[in-house]
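Pair request: fold both.
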Amino acid sequence: MSIDMNTLISQMIMFFVILGCGFIGAKLGLLKAEVIHGLSSLLMGVICPLMLIAVFPSAVQEENAWDIAKSVIPYALITYPLLTGAGFLTGTLLHFRGDKRKIFTAQCLFGNMAFFGLPLVKEIFDPVAVVAFSFCVVIDNLFLWTEGVLLTSKSEGGQELSLKLIIKKLSNPVIVGVLIGLMLMILKVPSDLLILRSFDTIGSCAKPLALLYIGGTIALMESGSLKKAWPVVFVIIIKLIVMPVVIFRVMTWLGVNDLARNIWTLIIALPSMASIPIMAESFGSTEADYAVQGVFIITLASLVTIPLVVMLCR
């Protein structure tokens, strides 16, 4: 895997420090709940969309949008069902049933792409990889607001999945940012325009603010006894270590291009999505508390497992 280990480890240490600042700030009351929720809105509504709008045109010199899309999107049709099957099978072998097995499967399936993956990719890869990752974000949203809703809903009852809900959730600023950036890329708009450079400057705030948000969110969670979260050990082993290495080796064997292989390996190695507990609570899952506890452990573990996966895939 063509990632400089020194750069990656430096990024992981930086991630840990900033995340820790968010955690401590929230625990000390310096970061109020309303501020942390405001960070989420700022990131998803302004910073990430503007960053994506700016980064798409900067990649146009090397490849066109269709070539990049073709290099990454088809593997979603394999990767997401594979992760779903791995999570469901492991949950069954662990004798989980009902909502517990569904939340466990969601933890194995969905990575924290917007708040963790996007800032990381921007730091360690070139603009083409960021564009490729952005296409993956769109695919991830499609699965999240369809399959993800089903997995985080109460087995009997709870909020039902509907076409109106799917369309509403997919009509978010990040997806709009991807579409605008894609249009600018197709039109070959110069990346050195003052407005795009301004957007890029705003986008550079994504990493620190996203990590402060994650740290603050974890601090505000009513985690309860972490002993109840022991199943996340298997999520860490399967999602954060085994599956990324397996996917990387299989893609290498199949001769998949480096861009798609590296992007999908990193996507699978990302910690479970921080919004899974929020969705679980919103859609009536009886295992929302377990989902909350899992976010804390899995996120911290990923700071070690991501460099480990890169080492195993070299």
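--- second member of the pair ---
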Amino acid sequence: MLTEERHNYIITQLKQRGLVKSQDLINNLNCSESTIRRDLALLEAAGELTRIHGGAKRTYHLDEELTAHEKTSKNIQEKKAIAELAASFIEENDTIFLDAGTTTLYLVPFLKNKNIRVVTNGIQQATLLSELQIKTILLGGEIKTTTKAIIGTVSNNQLNDYRFNKSFLGINGIDSEFGFTTPDIEEAAVKKQAHLHSSKTYFLADQTKFDKVSFAKVCELEDAIIVTDTIDHTVYQSYFDQTTIKEAKK
């Protein structure tokens, strides 16, 4: 087996399990202890893992949050496909929570002519919803200038009094060990409240959000449904084992 193939195998195992044992790698890759030791050393130098006694563990890098403007220009077609699929789960007379974020913003046009009620903490979402004559409640609170999300105690207190058929949330990180995470504590609190008060929670995420960990946790992986574009079933097998992943048709 080529060095690159061994490295890809090791990285894939780390993504799925978070930890690999040297002896298992020796057996599964049919190579010597010295080869595995050298592979782990090279991958550690590349920042892919941290060597420990008897194997290695995955290295996590906490991602920094992009501004709303920066997010808008990324993966546009994927986000539109994800948004269209997410909209198909919304039924007549539903009361939903729609999170602030670029992918959830693309969902709004697909809500045209639906008889629903929407609660949102997204200023841009609320504007578009009102233009479509959709019954909308915009949460009060502090405006986060970078993402145009409304956050804070006021918005959380409002959410505590509401109940939803479904919530549709954006997310920064999806990880089999750490679950759904986002960089900002205040935004995480809003997402968590919406999730706890919804019969079903859908996280809208493209491939770039997988195997990422951010600072603040929202909920466990098995507690929600991921709506995503087509992904590699092999690399993300751990997610299929723990939750329902829907695939948008290209």
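Observation on the second member. Residues 7 and 39 are 7 Å apart (CA to CA).
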